[in-house]
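Example record

The entry below shows one chain as it appears in the dataset: sequence first, then structure tokens.
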Amino acid sequence: MKRVAILALSALMMTTAGVRAFAADSIGTVDYDKLVRSYNKAQMFSDDMKAKEADLEKTRAEYVKQIRETKTKQPNNPVAVDQLEKTLEDKLNAQVNSYRNQQESQAKALETEMTTAIEGVARSKSLSVILAKQTVFVGGTDITNDVLSRLNASSASSGK
């Protein structure tokens, strides 16, 4: 009876170790921050957004200058100054909203591209779970460089 119990316990331990090994091998990790920093389209997106922010700041500064000049030239006409402020503020807000909508659209597209690449690499490596690398202390297969290679190759072949 003791032998049967020991054999059963040994079999259970071997099965548990096998399941653990399988689970560890089927988990992948991705350093999402590295993807964002190193994916060439993400870098172009970031550079574009910085340029647009600079344009907005330049436009805002020009509008402030126009308002000051109007106040100086027409000190007795506060209505004209108020109308100009309102008009320029509306123009600036429209431009900000346009940039914001474009930014959100491009960010979603980039996120979709990265997710698709992560899923593709995970499938090719038979990984069933992908976690953020920063949340995994030990184990898992890091697929960050494979995903990055796939993204940049795809980006280069599409001419973007």
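Notes for this example: Residues 28-157 form a domain with the Protein Binding, DinI Protein; Chain A fold (CATH 3.30.910). The chain has one domain: 28-157.
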